Design the sequence.
C-alpha cells in the first residue's frame, strides 16, 4: 500500500454538459445556460439547430386587439397582458413573432423571399439575446459555451453570431477548438439530405470530405470530442419514421398499418468514428432517438430533444485523461 500526493496518479477531470436541437425555445436555452452551475460543469456544448421554424404574425386590428393563429387555432388578444402571455408561450415553443397591421400582413402573404428574410432577422435577434444571456450568466467563471450550427440553421444567422464580441461563448461551426489543455472539440453542423429541404444539407460524401478536412487539424483524435450534428448511420441514434418526400408536407410511409422506421444518419460520420476512435462522439438531429451506442470503446450519444415542451434533454460527460469516466443523461 502507498500514499500519493494530491494530484499524483490521478488524471485531471473535465466535466461537460451537452444538449442540442433547441430550435428557438427561450425556456430551453435558459435551462441550458443554467445547467452550467446546476451540474457543476467546466463547459457547455450545444450541438446545433438553434433556429426556430415558425413566425407567428400578430395582426393589430382596428379594434385595438391582436389576432393570431397558433397550431390551427385562432386567438384574439384583447389586452397587453394577454399579448405578453401569448408571446411567452410562443417563446417556449421556439416560435418567433412580429406585430403587423393589416396592410403589412398582406405584404408578406405569398412573398417567400421576404418571409425568409424576416426569419433570418428574427433568428439573429433571438440568438443575440441568447448569447448576451450566456455572457451574463457565465461571466466571472472559467466555463465556456461552445456552439455549433445544425441543418436547420442558415449561414447568415450563424455568421451573425461570429460578429458578436464574446468572452464565454465560442462559435465553433466547422472548427477544431480547445476544450482544455488536453482535449479538443471538432464540430460540424450539416446533415445528410432530408425530406424537408433544410438550409444546410449535404450529400454524405461531401460530409465525409468536410470531416476529413476538419480532422486534419486535430493533433490527437483519441483526445478529441466529435460534435457532429448528424448521428452515425444505423446506430439507433438516427432511427425515425421514414417519410414520403413526393408529397408536401412529407407524409409517413406506412406498411401493414404501421409507420416504417429507418436510420437517417450519416455513413461518413460512422466511418469517421470507427477510423479515428475519438474520445466520444456527440450528436442530435433526430429528436426522438435518445440513447447511446458504442463503436468499440467509443461512446456515441444523442440526448434527444423536447424543446417545444420547454424540456431540456442533455447529457453530462466526465473526461479523465483520454477516457470517459462517466456518462449521465438528464431531463428537466
Sequence:
Amino acid at each position: 500500500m502507498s500514499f500519493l500526493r494530491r494530484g499524483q496518479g490521478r488524471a485531471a477531470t473535465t466535466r461537460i454538459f451537452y444538449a442540442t436541437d433547441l430550435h428557438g425555445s427561450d425556456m430551453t436555452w435558459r435551462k441550458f445556460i443554467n445547467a452550467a452551475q446546476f451540474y457543476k460543469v467546466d463547459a457547455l456544448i450545444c450541438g446545433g439547430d438553434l433556429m426556430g421554424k415558425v413566425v407567428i404574425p400578430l395582426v393589430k386590428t382596428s379594434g385595438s386587439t391582436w389576432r393570431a393563429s397558433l397550431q390551427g387555432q385562432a386567438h384574439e388578444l384583447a389586452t397587453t397582458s394577454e399579448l405578453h402571455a401569448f408571446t411567452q408561450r410562443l417563446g417556449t415553443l421556439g416560435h418567433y413573432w412580429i406585430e403587423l397591421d393589416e396592410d403589412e400582413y398582406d405584404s408578406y402573404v405569398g412573398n417567400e423571399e421576404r418571409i425568409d428574410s424576416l426569419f433570418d432577422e428574427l433568428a439573429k435577434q433571438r440568438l443575440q439575446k441568447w448569447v448576451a444571456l450566456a455572457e451574463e450568466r457565465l461571466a466571472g467563471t472559467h466555463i465556456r459555451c461552445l456552439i455549433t450550427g445544425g441543418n436547420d440553421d442558415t449561414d447568415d444567422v450563424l455568421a451573425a453570431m461570429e460578429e458578436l464580441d464574446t468572452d464565454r461563448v465560442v462559435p465553433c461551426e466547422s472548427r477544431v477548438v480547445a476544450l482544455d489543455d488536453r482535449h479538443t472539440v471538432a464540430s460540424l453542423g450539416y446533415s445528410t439530405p432530408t425530406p424537408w429541404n433544410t438550409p444546410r444539407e449535404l450529400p454524405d460524401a461531401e460530409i465525409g470530405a468536410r470531416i476529413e478536412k476538419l480532422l486534419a487539424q486535430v493533433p490527437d483524435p483519441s483526445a478529441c470530442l466529435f460534435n457532429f450534428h448528424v448521428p452515425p448511420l444505423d446506430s439507433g441514434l438516427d432511427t425515425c419514421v421514414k417519410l414520403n418526400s413526393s408529397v408536401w408536407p412529407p407524409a409517413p410511409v406506412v406498411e401493414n398499418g404501421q409507420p416504417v422506421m429507418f436510420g437517417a444518419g450519416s455513413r461518413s460520420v460512422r466511418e469517421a468514428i470507427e477510423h479515428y476512435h475519438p474520445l466520444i462522439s456527440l450528436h442530435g438531429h433526430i429528436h426522438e432517438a435518445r440513447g447511446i451506442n458504442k463503436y468499440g470503446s467509443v461512446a456515441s450519444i444523442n440526448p434527444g430533444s423536447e424543446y417545444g415542451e420547454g424540456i431540456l434533454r442533455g447529457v453530462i460527460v466526465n473526461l479523465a485523461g483520454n477516457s470517459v469516466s462517466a456518462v449521465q443523461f438528464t431531463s428537466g
Observations:
- The longest helix spans residues 112-138.
- The longest strand covers residues 323-331.
- Residues 279 and 323 are 6 Å apart (CA to CA).
